[in-house]
Amino acid sequence: MNLQKKVELALVKTSLLMKIIPKYLSIALFLLVGCGKSAQHEHQDQDDDSDNSPNQALYDQVMDIHNEVMPKSDEIYNLKKEIKDKLTSTPDLSTDKKEKLNQIVAELDSADHSMMDWMHKFKPLPDSANQELAREYLENEMERIKTVRELINGALQKAKEELGKK
């Protein structure tokens, strides 16, 4: 029992870190992006605005998707906790049911990690970069963040269905 409490305490600490870290990372990302935007506008003249607007619009679309799914990390955390509680509080679960619940927890973890991974790797090119390369980069990032969104929404849907939630 003492070992179980230590394991549960470690899981709670890990879960708290997983909840706190994304919030601080997203704040840092927004600050960096905001600083980049202000510098971007200071160094442009009127002619550059028309060249940059398609890339800026694409960048905004990428960030819109990020902003849509990033807040779902709290929901991921809560659903994982509920499923883990179900696993520990229901000793008569079949092996298949336990495997299914553990798989859902793994999918929730994977989805959450995919967002963290995307955020760590997202590095928009500076204004001085080739606009064609910048557009290509943003198009690739659009596909990556769409995949992250699908992973997160899919994992959340499975977890909610398993727990009988909408």
Q: How many domains is the backbone divided into?
A: 1
Alpha-beta classification? mainly alpha
Number of helices: 5
The secondary-structure element order is: HHHHH
Strand content: under 5%
Q: Mean of residue pLDDT?
A: 81
- Basic shape: elongated
Runs in which pLDDT lies below 50 for 5 or more consecutive residues are: 37-52
Could you give a short account of the major beta sheet? none
Task: Report the strand count.
Answer: 0
Distance between the termini: 35 Å
- Radius of gyration (CA) equals 20 Å
Question: What's the structural blueprint in terms of helices and strands?
Answer:
Elements: H1 2-42, H2 46-69, H3 73-89, H4 95-121, H5 131-163
Can you give me a brief rundown of this structure?
The protein has helices at 2-42, 46-69, 73-89, 95-121, 131-163. With 166 residues, it is mostly helical.
Describe it:
- The protein is mainly α and 166 residues long.
- It has one domain.
- The chain has helices at 2-42, 46-69, 73-89, 95-121, 131-163.
- Helix 2 packs parallel to helix 5 (131-163).
- The longest helix has 41 residues, at 2-42.
- It is elongated, with a radius of gyration of 20 Å.
- 17% of the residues are buried.
- The model is unreliable at 37-52 (pLDDT under 50).
Attribute tags:
166 residues, mainly alpha, elongated
